[in-house]
Amino acid sequence: MVGGISLAASATLYTAYKLNKRRNMRLLREARRKKYAPDLPPLINTNTTTTVISQNEVSPENHPPVERTVQIEELDEKQYNQWKTRDGERNSNIMELRLILEDIIDELPELEEVVEDELTDEERIMELAARGEWIEENEEELEEHATFVETEMVGSGIIVEEAPPVNDDLDERLEREGGKSGAVQVSLAWDDYNDLDLHLFCPSGERIYFNNKESECGGELDVDMNVKPVSNNPVENVVWTNNPPKGTYKVGVHFYKHHRKRRTKKKTKYRLRVTIFGKVQEYSGMMKYGSAMQMVTGFTIGKQDDLAKKYQSFE
Predict the structure, then answer these.
(1) Is residue 133 situated within a structural domain?
(2) 190 found inside a domain
(3) Contacts of 72 (CB under 8 A, 6+ apart)
(4) Residue of 1, 15, 17, 188 with fewest CB within 10 Å of its CB?
(5) Residue 97 lies in a domain
(6) pLDDT tens track of the chain, all 315 residues?
(7) How many domains does the chain have?
(8) Against a cut of 0.90, is the pTM above it?
(9) What is the span of the domain harbouring residue 116?
């Protein structure tokens, strides 16, 4: 009898422990959603899976399995603190390499309302400076920073649990700019005049971005916006129209340039859509000008033995 009571008490304590752990994880997810994606709807489902297409999933096209990265909102407190430490190291790295455009001239104070006619001579110089010239001077440093960011195994984008809102215009933006769709498509949208840049790290080791728009493995950056501040509803798009290589892909976003335009601040909310063989994943987040390139999410196509480039997970 004593043994039975002891066993029942142990089972009760274990159940209470599991329920408390589940509750704590839900609260952690809610806190991170409010911090990194405050406009997202309240949390609905605390149970997530990294499986996009399972190995056993049957499809007419016989697609390979697909797994996505773990995102920061799915981490426990210890893992999240480790991610924050790495994120701090990335922010220090971009400062040390002087990859923030405003570091090139005197630091400019942020203004709430600015129109083009009110720009100073220094601001006009920045506005008219060719991105290619800047890249030519800083290509080695940017490559070093991108390589550092690529080692990250946890995505900073917050998972959007429901379908995009009815008034979401990402598809309209892509159609407006002539963006292609395909077997793998990664699209980035934001709602001000800033210049955010999409960086796609390919399984082959190539990086698709504004200075390398077509990769040897078939990927293409076909929409690149706001080199100059022409739109407050921009979009960027990377696509493999067919035959994407197997392996691990990582999606980076870099806050390249803060354009001093009306209602455009140094903090930008973004949304990211990843479509893989018709399966859609939506992410949201916030970036501050001067921060490191973010590894927003990643995914692996194929079995581990098929991968062209392998990454080691963090302990």
Answers:
(1) yes
(2) yes
(3) 32, 36, 80, 83, 154, 155, 156, 158
(4) 1
(5) yes
(6) 666 676 666 666 656 655 565 678 788 889 999 999 988 888 888 788 999 999 887 677 788 999 999 999 999 999 999 999 999 999 999 988 887 765 443 343 443 444 444 445 455 445 545 566 767 787 888 899 999 999 999 999 999 987 676 678 899 999 999 999 999 999 999 988 888 999 999 999 999 998 899 999 999 999 898 777 777 788 999 999 998 999 999 999 998 877 777 777 888 999 999 999 999 999 999 999 889 999 999 999 997 666 655 555 433
(7) 1
(8) no
(9) 51-306
